[in-house]
Amino acid sequence: MSRFAQVKDLVMSLEADFEKFYDKGNSAAGTRVRGGLQSLKTLAQEIRTEVQNKKNAGK
């Protein structure tokens, strides 16, 4: 699976919890959103490192 697809899948998996939190006020969904965003942050950092390493390997 491509890294971009992983990011898309993670964001899409959070959609229902975003709706529950913002539209219905479900605070447990807010906790799941925060956890998912932390996972997204970690994944983004891994991708940034991978891109940087590939860029530097080409020099």
UniProtKB/TrEMBL annotation:
Pfam families: Hc1. It comes from the Bacteria. GO terms for molecular function: DNA binding; structural constituent of chromatin. InterPro entries: Hc1. Might have a role analogous to that of eukaryotic histone proteins. Belongs to the histone H1/H5 family. HCT subfamily. This is Histone H1. It comes from Sandaracinomonas limnophila.
